[in-house]
Amino acid sequence: MRVELPDLSAMEAFGRRIAMRVEPGDVVALSGTLGTGKTTLARAVIAALGHEGEVPSPTYTIIETYDGLRVPLVHADFYRLQDPSEADELGLDDYREEAVLLAEWPDHAGGFAHEAGCLSIALEKVGDGREAVVSPGTSWQSRCP
After folding, report:
1. Helix (H) or strand (E) holding 12
2. Which residues 6+ apart lie within 8 Å of 3 measured at CB?
3. Burial of 93 from C-beta contacts in 10 A (0-12 / 13-18 / 19+)
4. Where is the protein situated, by its record's location annotation (predicted)?
5. How many whole angstroms separate alpha carbon 89 and alpha carbon 78?
6. Hey, where are the domains in the chain?
7. What are the start-end ranges of the H helices in 25-117?
8. pLDDT the model gives residue 119
9. For the CA atoms of the chain, what is the radius of gyration?
10. 100-104 and 118-126 as β-strands: parallel, antiparallel, unpaired?
């Protein structure tokens, strides 16, 4: 499925649609080259889940956690990982327990597309806007945004 995201308001609306459907244990895997809007979409999802205030990019911390939302959320940016085994060293499984994982650069952590609860979103630049190529895991089939 392809979703056109011509501007920031479309990206925010897409983030709200995702946020309405996520459940604990899900992974929203965001891929795309630098500057395609992965962090922008992540921020839209986090805000739509009820977070008020700034959402820092986890580029340097790698993992940011958000409790007190509609569902607990872990926002991870795996860009700096050199090997997928480093995700295990971070204790990623402990963070994911009963939470949604919002993963930027998921391939750097070994990928999550094999999981039934993974919603893979590849963002691409299209003119001045973006396009999302959405691939839902089996548990997302009936609730795809």
Report:
1. helix 8-21
2. 14, 131, 132, 134, 145
3. exposed
4. Cytoplasm
5. 12
6. 2-138
7. 38-48, 85-89, 92-96
8. 95
9. 14
10. unpaired
21 neighbors 93 (Cβ within 8 angstroms): no
**What's at 87, amino acid-wise?**
A
Q: How far apart are CA 122 and CA 38, in angstroms?
A: 9
The CATH fold assigned to 2-138 is Rossmann fold (3.40.50)
Stated as kind and residue range, the H or E segment containing 20 is: helix 8-21
What is the tens place of the pLDDT at every residue in 34-92?
989 999 999 999 999 999 988 888 777 899 999 989 999 999 999 999 998 888 888 88
Q: Give the pLDDT confidence of 84-137 residue by residue, as tens digits.
A: 888 888 888 888 888 999 999 999 999 999 999 999 999 999 999 999 999 999
